[in-house]
Amino acid sequence: MSTPVMHDPRAARAALLRDTNFRWMMVGGAISMLGDQFTLIALPWLVLQLTGDALTLGLTIALMGVPRAIFILVGGALVDRYSPKRVLMLTKYANAFLLGLLAALVLTHQVTMPLVYALALGIGLASAFSIPSGSSMLPNVVAPHQLQMANGMMMSMRVLTALAGPLLAGLLIAFSSHDPAPAGGAGMTDARGLGIAFALDAVSFAVTVWTLHQVQMHPGAVRAAPQRVLAAVGDGLAMVWRDVEMRSAFIYWGVMSFVVGGAMQVAMPLLASSRLGGVAALGLVMGAHAAGNLAGMGLSSLKGDFRIGTFGTTLLLLDAVAGVVLMCMGSVGAAWQAAALMLLLGLLSGFTQVAVFTWIQRRVAREMLGRTMSIFMFILMGLAPLAASLTGLSMQYLDLTQLFVGAGLFLLAGTLAAFALTPMRVMNDSKSATISALTPDA
Q: For a surface tag, which of 128, 164, 225, 262 has the fewest beta carbons within 10 Å of its beta carbon?
């Protein structure tokens, strides 16, 4: 017998919040997400404090991306084979240790770039397993008909922490004591604030180990049949490849993420450092992007069925607008201007995030979800850090204006090419394979 779907959003939200497992996921997720924002600000600032070099910053980001890119598909296969909860727990232990060690090194002025490189590799390796496990947890915890609302609430929580975290991290680092480092930490004047930021993230991982213990998976959670890891990865890739619309969308998102995402990771800290006044401005700009994301998700919850033609066409049009906004970013000279543009970019991306994640989660059978989400997160997150190293190298020949304009033009051209040459323009909302599999009488 099919599960009834509540059409009253308030009643559906109340029912979801009465679910103890979902509440534990929300609490643990909020703590972990907030801690992550401190590292997001502190790590690039640490590298700039130690070296002041864009190429080194790009290399550090790339080193985090290399193990993530290599092992994320393996991580997805292990999630399907074992359990997203079990894999996620192990990654939280690893991240707590690595960030605690980094905090100690910074606070004692013992940190060096070789040590930063090594720890970046370790954090990237842990993320190769935490990303597919984290993105596969929710369908194993809430009922299928609650999935879109649960995704929206979790993503909104992520945005709220992304709004508060960069502001708090920027203020923490900016207003901590500016004690010049002794020999070995030359030029680093924000050691105390940076060390505390890394320590807070380490504590957040330790706390979420406990909260995750409280979450119970569905008793009938589907696990993939035992098979060799590489064969399981191959099955996931083959499944995505056979789905023509998903294949086209994944290729498009991968190319755009590689070029535009990689550029933004390097460009935003450099923009804050060279034009906007420092780390506090970086926190303000990233916080504005998070505020835009939150507004976009709120708008999506009210007008989730808004379409300009098909779902795919709508996504491409929003990306085209984002390309124009990126070109404008190249001419900003004040923090408020950058914040206003990032607010708009956040609004555009937030509007579609919930729908895109739910579209994938509902389209794919449960036993293939870990592998599919690992492929999706690979193209969004695994490739961009690799591009960051190339961006750092290109900054030896380009200025910030040329970088932003080039990234914006590439995104605009990519949307036009995808509309003209791929099936994305006819991609539409689809019925849930997961729901139909779990509720055969629907």
A: 225
